[in-house]
Amino acid sequence: MHRMANHSYLSVWCKDFPEELILERFGAFLQTVPFSATKPGFTYLTIRALDASESPILEQDLRSMPLDAAGIIQIASEQLHSDCSYEVSCYWDLSIFDAATGKSKIEPKALDIFCRGEDYDNALWRDSGHLEVSLGFEHLFTGHAGLLGIRPGAKSPPQSPEEARFLEAMAWPENLQMYQEKTRENIRKLQDWVRRIEKALPVERVRLWSEGEEDFEARIEEIVAAR
Question: Which residues contact 140 (CB under 8 A, 6 or more apart)?
Fold first, then answer.
């Protein structure tokens, strides 16, 4: 689609996040990540100090030998400081609708995960969470063109040939039904992950949000509830 693609995020605040527990909390969080079946493991690790304008103090490309949570924490343990940010990348599997074929398929999609000490970047954690995840494109959970939810229907004319083909495909009830079902599967996968996080960590608050929705969490709950 040629529209501006909005992204979605997960932010987690813990009840306590002292320096000595940062990597324990981070490790527990990483153990909840639902890896892609075809691309398991963490593929990048970056550690920054002070703020994002500083050059990383450590960067490791792990694509040739992805690590599990324990492997990431072992490396990061040499840089345990409350003014550091720990960043990892990996993949999880989400359903994608292909308008060209009229079929849905599972694809690995990137996850970028951030863990921030409370002294990093002027206490950035207060706004963004001790732990934050870039979940990928918003439409993977909300659908394109306002088609899903309690009051479905395209809200504006297509802005590209690709979007026009997508809307033509969605005019077939069976395609729209499949799109609804697969989008709900993505949402439930996200909600299941949040529940695992809440069990694994002393969570104070969780926020699901996006760049395009005023209330992303309410929007995805509406889509799950719609029939």
Answer: 8, 94, 96, 109, 183, 186
